[in-house]
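Shape is hard to put into words, and the shape of a protein is harder than most. The fold becomes a row of whole numbers, each drawn from a learned catalogue of backbone shapes. The outcome of that step, for a single protein, is printed below.
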Amino acid sequence: MKPLTPRHFRCAATAASLLLIAACGPAGGPPGGYPPAPVSVVTTETRDVPITLEYTAQTAGYREVEVRARVSGILLKRNYREGGTVRQGESLFTIDPSPFQLAQARASADLGVAEAQHQQAQRELARLKPVYEAKAVSQKELDDATSSERIAAAQVESVRARLNEARLNMEWTRVEAPIAGVAGRTAVSEGTLVSGPNVLLTTVTQTDPMYVIFGVSDRDHLALRRDVDAGRIKLPADGKLKATLKLGDGRDYARGGIVNFSDVRVNTQTGTSESRAEFANPSNHLRAGEFVRIALSGAVRPAAIVVPQRAVLEGPGGKFVYVVNAESKADPRPVEVGAWVADGWVINAGLKAGERVIVDGVLKIGPGAPVNVSEPSAPKTDGKPAADRAGDKPAEKPAAKPAVKS
């Protein structure tokens, strides 16, 4: 006789358990000794499911400009309040104008000399023309006078350009705000020698509107593109998603925004592509550099099937649900789940509209087990009994019985 193995003992124990269950089952029940397990189901239906995408983001100024001097010189004065609002063209700094005033005066004087020389050359040429026609002077003398007049005219233009440059440098000693916005702190103090554009003086940030920059991972981007191509997701007609913000303290920002930029490049260090939304910020409630949470809406999943989370089970072959078939038995159905929404899983494949999916009682059944189906009870919203909610009338009291006289 062959020796007994642990497998023989397990089979014997299982058989004994089945016999015991059959012996203890209630009389008159179905095969196996137990009545059909009570379960509740939901009937699947298709509906458009809004999609919300959330990302960590950071605010940035609509325009951020570095303020630098265009000429070299001593910084005489700061003309703005640090952290205050400035207007476009407002003076922020003053560079010592003395050297540029002298250069402008020198160029103006040189222009006077050049204009006088030009006028003299013009008169000389005018005198030689009739004399040349009378054959009293040679062609060379006329040519020399003509050249002298042209050289003098060119000298006038050169000196005039130098004067304009001196005037422009004089204007640049007044460092102005290139845009309207909030001015930052001063990077240099009064009395410092500023070597032209090489030295950063301050920055001006335009905070209305405000940009919110966030990164979309390459995996999420590919999944979204795949669902759009397959028709499982429908984007807005204009292609622009709406955006809302949640601030660092958990509060919602009062104004909504819109996504206006998505980069086609992927950052090799982070594996994300940069996107940007624009928000109105008239009261400067948002500050540049804040970390926020952005939620994108506007896309929908058309004709989607959603089942409650507790109906989806995990098996060796993946996720599945129990569907009640025509014989009132639990039929396991493999499903492909999609995104998670507020009230359950989106089912991409495996179910169709009109099927009954078991929601409650799944732990009491197995494949092919008979079930006793009941619809899930609707949640109570006002604390009233179901009868009172239906008609919103109190139940009538039974009439009092007449007293019996002895």
